[in-house]
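Troubleshooting log. The previous run stalled partway through. Resubmitting the same two chains, unchanged.
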Amino acid sequence: MRSSAMRDLMAVTARPEVISLAGGLPDTSTFPPKSFAAQMTRIAQESAAEALQYGPTEGFEETKDCIVEVMGAEGMLVDPHDIIVTTGGQQAIDLVCKTLVDPGDVVICEAPTYPGAVPVFCSYQAEVIQVECDGDGMRVDELEKLLERLRGEGRRPKFIYTVPSFQNPAGVTMSLQRRQRLVELARLHELLVVEDNPYGLLRYGGEPLPPLYQLDGGDFVIYIGTFSKILSPGIRLGWAVAPPPVMEKIVLGKQAADLCTSTLTQYFVREYFAEGRWRQYVEDLVEIYRGRRDTMLAALREHFPAAASWTEPQGGLFIWATLPEYIDTGDLLAKALRADVAFVPGQAAYIDERGRNSMRLNFSGVSDAEIREGIRRIGAVIAEQVELYEALTGEQATPARRGEADGADVLPFRKAGEASG
Amino acid sequence: MKVAVLKGGRSLERGVSLRSGARVEDALGRLGHEVVALDVGGDLVKRLSAERPDVAFVAMHGVGGEDGTAQELLEILGIPFTGPSAAACARCMDKGLAKNTIREAGLPTPDWFAFSQAAFRELGAADALDRLEQSLGFPLVVKPSRGGSSLGVKFAAGAAEVPQALVSAFSYDDRVLLERFVAGRELAVSVLGDEALPVVEAIPAQGDSYDFEARYEIGRTRFVCPAELDASAGTAVTEAALATYRALGCSGFARIDLILAADGPQVLEANAIPGLTDTSLLPQAAEAAGLTFEQLVGRILDLALKPAVA
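Second attempt completed without errors. Output:
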């Protein structure tokens, strides 16, 4: 995050009494400690020396086999030689930027974009241009116009960064038509697309869509994946798939950064996949997260004002809510923290001043009860702001909450605020 | 000596406070003191009673630590502490209260009005906004009454922007100030004991002085210390700061923020516990006066143990 005042606010969200919907945490409490212990014991007994040693910069062949399996589950065929194992997906983003971006280069991404990518782009001094998203993901028609404009100015973007499935933070998914068009555009303009796909397997509804990597065959698409959301973020294991000339440079960058990815956690993944139950574990997570998403959507309908809107994600970890324009969610966070609840202000997902009235809400890392209580508290502080604004401007309250057609159980919005205390 | 460093707490400025505290702990350690680090919470009194420190170094910012709450407890427990007294902290923390005191002392401060949320919700204060805006003119500054950093501070260029700015400011406190905007150079004077340290000037990099956030983004504001002031301006600024410090009843240290306008300095506010991080203004000013951070911390500690020199 660019603003250190905002960063200080986020420091307060870590207090234990705060219900934090600000994180992006998978629920690791669902992983059985017994099998974790058994796998680590096996490593200690059978390959302690190797597991405690350095490994190859590109990662172990066995890890890559697991990655081939994970990508295969989403219909992608990949040559293990094109894979590099990284310290989380975040390092893959960093290495791609390190390899491709010189100061002043144009990088295109979505608006809003993954908040964790913003500081990476900024640290390589990229000129970031954001293309608006709607319910079908990145507006590829807007992208086309942008590419034309840039061509007119004699500038070539270094790459287009996108999270096409269950996007962080917006929760939206790029439609098949747009995916096809994006891949076409990449070919036409000979441009690289960086597809970041941490959530593809966490689908709670709708039909699976082919990843860009599959549509393109890997010519112009650099793919970034991770074990963080399907196994554990604590093991810090991710990967990148890139065409050979780019991969060579990425490997050099990786060598400079940290020589190799943790050997121990690669051994852990190898053991875990050997048991053959990873798909079932992902299915279990999907069941849990689907329930939490539904809980959050129901709570939003109950507690957020009529003037608010939000996305209804078919997968992933996040809902993106947008409030009336006069509410700055950075300031709202200060008020919410006094009520011991936190979210990510929308501004974190933008380079410019947009997103100030939006917020990212996470439903995967918190219990159903916390989700209900957290959303109720946020709804109450929004209600106070709405009421105050109306008192200041003389504008009238909108009586019913959003999505409540039958008047029977509709409470005046003000009531919801007062009930909270 | 056994020194308890009070830091953190529930304030929105928790992050800065933890950084200030950590730096102070390092310095105290190097000075040979026994350091007890306390992240302030519900067990503060218990822990202080158990530890029995000789002195407490208060490195808390914002509500709870800079507003006199922690100081009040320290006074009850009879533990000497750094910085201003509980009463002085409370006066500095509430900008409306502080400005009243400053004006009563005959010192210049920009015109302002202070409102509670209740005034708007229950007394229809919105109907008075027109007159108030006429009196203050545009742009005007809207700020939460209590709050140390620039959080929630907004400029309203015209009447249409005032409601939104008020909603933002009320997110931080139940009282807000609407203040006349005074154009000029932004200065900060740190006072240590009864002496003013060299003046710091904040210079926005892109000349957009309306953008308060610029101050908190790396590289967008440049700090110059000592500020380049001619002798008479320098004296006027320093004297206004010292008079403010005395009027508010500060002791130990404090930082006074001012605007140097065409017709002289205008006092904006006083910070009872200024930041002590490696980018904070008080340590910069101390350095310009030839004090290392250790010497600064040592001097602040001495002032806590031997007050009332005057």
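Takeaways: Chain B has three domains: 2-83, 92-101+183-305, 112-180. The first strand of chain B starts at residue 2 and ends at 7.
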